[in-house]
Structure formats: structure tokens, C-alpha cells
Design a protein that fits this description.
mainly alpha, Ammonium transporter fold, 2 strands, about 400 residues, single chain
Length: about 400
């Protein structure tokens, strides 16, 4: 039976997740140089259009269609809305319309690939990114989401991921390394810091605001589990923020507004997979551990490869750690999953498998697309600015009188 309160709750949650993609665009757009700001924002926004089309015509079926050997769903199921029950599909929810479930899951699909763009910022052409985006969704996001959420082989093993730590953060956070491996380092690194901390702040605010719907909406109901998830999300974010601030102060002897925001994001990325399986007290530890591990990983990655906006260190490793911590902190009184050696090993296996798969397949996608036609931005264009060359526009466009 459709419960109107749950419908309202899920519509709000869906909108909250949607607003995270423009939030991510503003966040990234403020972090890069002014001359490249529109390009990375475009790369985020274009996902709303392209992924929606893919989702309607095969993507949703690949994730939630009839299982094919535990690997992928049947893309013909629900293709172009065919055969979709506009009322209830009890396989996924017995209290909201199936169409609302379709839309809620679409928002997760939209934001995943854009997370990668911060890692190889300023290095990929617009056409190249569109090709990569399409192939990446088909070959990585849709299959992995099916493995975990659509009845695939990982879910049958007992692997769990409440709101996307593995499906979203590991795939994007480790997949981006494959892109970096092909595109190489930036010809001109940003040594002046963020172009506009105001944009970064607005984007971060939208991300933090939307993250509550991102996680709490996973309950698919305005019920007790949603309250716990909502609380865990806020608590982990706060403790991640404070821990990161302390670590940064110890290293640099001063506070940083930007680093404070990054700490909150690290806490959120880490709590995402386990938000619906642990107690609020455990979420304190998750937030602290997330900040500690991600802070260290950011230091390491800056010495090893050119991840422009620290995507692997925060999103990749945050999602990876949070996925594993389910095996330690999960409490069966919350959501029927109990931490222990067996669950820990299952979580570790799933996280490692998804990380390796995402890296290798992303690398191959970039190699193949680049072989067909170079997708690398030349050194000259990087120095001149991508916005001017690709769009003939500027984020600050003062008209001459």
C-alpha cells in the first residue's frame, strides 16, 4: 500500500540528491582556476542529461532488471518505461510508487561519474569526456550497482552498501586513477589555490545539505531507520570536520577554511556505506577514522600522482574505509547486519574487487577512446584556458559598454 508520508519523504530525498550534482559543479568550479571553471562545471552538469537518457533506455534495467548470472540485469526490462508498474513493485518497495524508486536511484547514477572529473581536471576534452561518461556508466556503474543493489553476486554473498560507499565512491574514486594514468599530469598546475572560495562554499553547502537525503533516503520510508541514518550522517560529518581541522593545524600551524570543508566531505564519504547499519556512537568513530585515513591518503597521493582535487584520497578511500567498517561496527538491531569476522571478510572482498575492477576498466575505456581520437587537452590550451577554447565563455563575463 502506498503511504503518502513516505512518498513525500522520498520526493524530498530525491530532490536533495539531485541538488548535489550542481553542488559538486560549484564546488569543483571554485577549486580550479578561473579560466577552467566552466569546463569542469559543464562536465558535471552534462551528466544530468546524458545519464537520464541512458537510465531510461537500458540503464535502469541493467541495474534492477532480471538478474543474468549475478553479473548484470536485463537491459530490456523497463526499457523506455515499458512494463514499468507505476504503482508498487514489492521487490524493491511496498510503500512508494516504483516510478519514484526509479527517479531516486537515477540521482545516484547522475552524480557518480562527475566525481571523477576533479581528479583529472583540465586534461580531457569535452567530446572525450562525453564518450568516457557513456562507456563508464555502461561498463562500470550499471554492473557494479547491480552486483550490490540489484540482486547480483555480491549481494548474494552478503555484501552490503547502504547508500553508495562502494557503488559510487569506490567506483569513482578508484576509477579516476585509470583516467589519470592515461591523461598524465597537468601541464600547468594551480599554485595559487582555489579561484573562488565563495563558489566552493556554496557548492559544499549544497553537498552537505543534499547528503542527508542521499543517505537517509536509502530507507525508502519516513521511519525509524531513516532517523538513525540521518543522525549518523550529521555526526560523522561533524567529527570528520573537526578531526581534519586538528590534523591540518598540527601540520601547518594554522587553520584553513577549505580544509575544514574537505574534512566534512571525508566524514560523509566514509559514513555513506555504513550509515544504515551502525549506531550513532559508532558514527563518531567512523567520522574520526575517515578523517585520519583520508588525510593521510591525500598526503600520499600528492607525492605519487596528479589527482588535482584529491578525489581518490577523500572519496575513494573514504568509501573504501566505510565499506570495510561495516564488518566491524554493524549492529543487527539497526538493520539486520551484524559485524564480525565473516562480514568483515565479505566487505573487504567486495571493496577490493570493486576498486580493482573500476581502475582497470576505466583505464581501458580511456585508452580505447583516446586511440580513436585524442581526448587529451594540449599544453597550449591548458595554458590559455579551457573555457575560452571550448566555450568562448568566461565564468566572469563583464560586458563592454
Amino acid at each position: 500500500m502506498i503511504i503518502h508520508g513516505d512518498v513525500a519523504f522520498m520526493i524530498i530525498s530525491t530532490v536533495l540528491v539531485l541538488i548535489m550534482t550542481p553542488g559538486l559543479a560549484l564546488f569543483y568550479g571554485g577549486l580550479v582556476e578561473k579560466k577552467n571553471s566552466l569546463t569542469i562545471m559543464f562536465q558535471c552538469f552534462i551528466s544530468i542529461g546524458i545519464v537520464t537518457v541512458l537510465w531510461i533506455f537500458g540503464g535502469f534495467g541493467m541495474v534492477f532488471g532480471s538478474d543474468i548470472n549475478g553479473i548484470i540485469g536485463n537491459p530490456l526490462n523497463y526499457f523506455g518505461f515499458m512494463g514499468m508498474d507505476y504503482l508498487i513493485n514489492p521487490q524493491y518497495s511496498d510503500n512508494i510508487p516504483f516510478l519514484l524508486f526509479f527517479m531516486y536511484q537515477l540521482m545516484f547514477a547522475i552524480i557518480t561519474a562527475p566525481l571523477m572529473t576533479g581528479a583529472f581536471a583540465n586534461r580531457i576534452t569535452i567530446g572525450g569526456w562525453i564518450k568516457v561518461l557513456i562507456l563508464w556508466m555502461i561498463l562500470i556503474y550499471f554492473p557494479v550497482a547491480h552486483w550490490v543493489w540489484g540482486g547480483g553476486f555480491l549481494s548474494k554473498l552478503g555484501f552490503v552498501d547502504y547508500a553508495g560507499g562502494a557503488v559510487i565512491h569506490i567506483t569513482a574514486g578508484f576509477g579516476c586513477l585509470g583516467g589519470i594514468a592515461v591523461l598524465g599530469n597537468r601541464a600547468q598546475k594551480n599554485t595559487k589555490g582555489p579561484f573562488n572560495l565563495g563558489l566552493v562554499t556554496i557548492g559544499a553547502g549544497l553537498l552537505l545539505f543534499g547528503w542527508f537525503g542521499f543517505n537517509a533516503g536509502g530507507s525508502l520510508a519516513a521511519a525509524d531507520t531513516a532517523s538513525i541514518v540521518f543522525t549518523n550522517t550529521g555526526v560523522a560529518s561533524a567529527f570528520g570536520m573537526i578531526t581534519w581541522c586538528i590534523l591540518h593545524y598540527i601540520e601547518h600551524k594554522r587553520f584553513s577554511f577549505l580544509e575544514m570543508i574537505v574534512g566534512a566531505v571525508a566524514g560523509l564519504a566514509t559514513i555513506t556505506p555504513c550509515a544504515g547499519y551502525i549506531t550513532p556512537y559508532s558514527s563518531i568513530l567512523v567520522g574520526i577514522l575517515g578523517a585520519l585515513v583520508c588525510f593521510l591518503c591525500v598526503i600520499i597521493e600528492r607525492k605519487l600522482f596528479d589527482d588535482a582535487l584529491d578525489v581518490w584520497g577523500t572519496h575513494g578511500m573514504g568509501g573504501f574505509l566505510g565499506t570495510i567498517l561495516i564488518g566491524i561496527f554493524a549492529n543487527s538491531t539497526i538493520n539486520d547486519v551484524q559485524g564480525g569476522v565473516n562480514q568483515l571478510l565479505i566487505q573487504l572482498f567486495g571493496a577490493v574487487l570493486i576498486a580493482i575492477y573500476s581502475f582497470i576498466v576505466t583505464y581501458l575505456i580511456f585508452v580505447i577512446v583516446n586511440k580513436i581520437k585524442s581526448i587529451k587537452v594540449s599544453e597550449e590550451i591548458q595554458k590559455e584556458g579551457l573555457d575560452k577554447v571550448f566555450f568562448g565563455e568566461s565564468i566572469i563575463n563583464l560586458q563592454e559598454k
